[in-house]
C-alpha cells in the first residue's frame, strides 16, 4: 500500500540523494495525520457548537473531577495560553453559560472557574462523538499494534513535552 508520503520521499531521494530523508517516512505521516485530526476535531466540536479552544478548557475542567472547578492560572498552564488569553476565554465561556466564576474560598482575591451543567453536557457529548471518530481511525490496528504505536509516539513526544 502506497500513500502520499511515499511519493514525496521518493521525489526527495531523487532530487537530494545527498540527504537522508528517512525521517520524512514517519514525521510527514504524523504531520498529515495531525492535519486530518484537526479538521475532524473541528467538525465534531462544531456539531456541539464548540470551538477547539472551548473544548480544551471545558475538558480540563471536566477531567478535574467534581466539583469541576480550577483556578484560571491552572487552566492557563494546562492549555498553554497567556493570562490575557485565558481571561478572554473564561469571559466568553461565562457569557455562553458553560462556566461560571466563583470566589476562591482560600484566596480572597482569587476566583475559581466552575463547569456548569450545560458545559458538562456539551463537553461530554463532544468527547463521545470524538472518541467514536478516533476509534474508527484506529479500527485497522490490533490492540497490540495500538499499544505499540502509543509507546513509540510517547517515546518521541516525551522529551518535547518536558517543561523548559
What does the model show?
The chain has 2 domains: 1-47; 49-155, Arc Repressor Mutant, subunit A. Strand 2 and strand 3 (107-115) form a beta hairpin. The protein has 164 residues and is mainly α. It has helices at residues 4-15, 22-47, 52-63, 72-79, 83-95, 117-137, 143-161; strands spanning 69-70, 99-104, 107-115. The chain has a 3-stranded antiparallel sheet. The longest helix is centred in the N-terminal third of the chain and has 26 residues, at 22-47. Keywords: DNA-binding, Transcription, Transcription regulation. GO terms for molecular function: DNA binding; DNA-binding transcription factor activity. It comes from Thermobifida fusca TM51. This is Regulatory protein MarR.
Short recap of the structure:
This is Regulatory protein MarR. By secondary structure, the chain is mostly helical.
SSE inventory with pairings:
Blueprint: H1 4-15, H2 22-47, H3 52-63, E1 69-70, H4 72-79, H5 83-95, E2 99-104, E3 107-115, H6 117-137, H7 143-161
Antiparallel strand pairs: 1-3, 2-3
Helix pairs in contact: 2-6, 3-6, 4-5
Domain HTH marR-type: 23-158
Protein name: Regulatory protein MarR
InterPro entries: HTH_MarR-typ, WH-like_DNA-bd_sf, WH_DNA-bd_sf
Amino acid at each position: 500500500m502506497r500513500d502520499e508520503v511515499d511519493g514525496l520521499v521518493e521525489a526527495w531521494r531523487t532530487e537530494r540523494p545527498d540527504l537522508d530523508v528517512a525521517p520524512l517516512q514517519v514525521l510527514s505521516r504524523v504531520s498529515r495525520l495531525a492535519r486530518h485530526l484537526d479538521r475532524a476535531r473541528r467538525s465534531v466540536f462544531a456539531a456541539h457548537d464548540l470551538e477547539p479552544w472551548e473544548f480544551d478548557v471545558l475538558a480540563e475542567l471536566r477531567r478535574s473531577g467534581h466539583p469541576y472547578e480550577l483556578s484560571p492560572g491552572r487552566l492557563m498552564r494546562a492549555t498553554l495560553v497567556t493570562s490575557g488569553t485565558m481571561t478572554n476565554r473564561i469571559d466568553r465561556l461565562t457569557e455562553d453559560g458553560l462556566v461560571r466564576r466563583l470566589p476562591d474560598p482560600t484566596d480572597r482575591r482569587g476566583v475559581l472557574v466552575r463547569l456548569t451543567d450545560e458545559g458538562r453536557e456539551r463537553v461530554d457529548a463532544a468527547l463521545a462523538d470524538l472518541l467514536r471518530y478516533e476509534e474508527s481511525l484506529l479500527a485497522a490496528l490490533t490492540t497490540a499494534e495500538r499499544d505499540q504505536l502509543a509507546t513509540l509516539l510517547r517515546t518521541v513526544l516525551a522529551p518535547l513535552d518536558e517543561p523548559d
